[in-house]
Fold:
Amino acid sequence: MEDVIKFDTVGQYNAFNNNETLHPLVSVIDLSKSSRRHNARQNFGFYTVFLKEIKCGNIKYGCNYYDYEEGTLVFIGPGQVIGIENNGEYFQPHGTALIFHPDLIKGTALAKHIQDYSFFSYDIHEALHLSESERKIIFDCIAKIKFELEHAIDKHSKTLIVSNIELFLNYCVRFYDRQFITRETAHKGILQRFEDLLTEYFKTEKPQDLGLPSVTYCAEHLNLSTNYFGDLIKKETGKSAQEYIQLKLMDVAKEKIFDKNKSVSEIAYELGFKYPQHFTRVFKQRVGYTPNEYRSLN
Structure:
């Protein structure tokens, strides 16, 4: 297994890309200044956003397809590993990277809700693909951050830099919402596959062997990251993925309750519950009746 190149500080990554360090906790990096290099897997100790300005056919990341070719944003959270194994070929990096260390935002409003930007946990193939007009807005945000970095540091610097990073991230939330809509056809296919996956799951002995299906289990079987999958289902249905699974579970449970040859305990175990009491409690919360009451009513 090839070693992973680890970057703990902003300064380390600046040096790696031949860029000057203007601030110890944040940087806007011109990747074209980097030396030619071969592919490698990299681990970042800070938040990283790559803006790739090349056509999707040339991109080094394993994306499925793109809505636009003008620009693509890839988000990486602290501790994540990105890249591909060294194949011996050299390439010249291009594009822009915005990086900021978690210490930069400590004590700010952004720190309190940074976890809400779930795209930092998306997979590479779930990147944000920008239209020309969106790309201009993104570049404007980056330009403001860069201006502050090149300005002499004063008491306003941190506030303005963090505010502009937050503005940048909020625009990305808007553009991802747009992407969910423009990819509606593809996403409806995923929704149907999600439904089929759950149907098939409860037809087998997997509930007894694996327990109740989790959001992570479903996401992995649909080749999506857990966060992207959860956000997609929320946008498509108005319900969280967990709520959707619970609704499917209750539909299956109602069908099984009609079989009076099975006890409530047997049904609970068949559905993946470890304890019948848990099943009874969940059923009562969701349906308004206990399993036995529901059986009597029907």
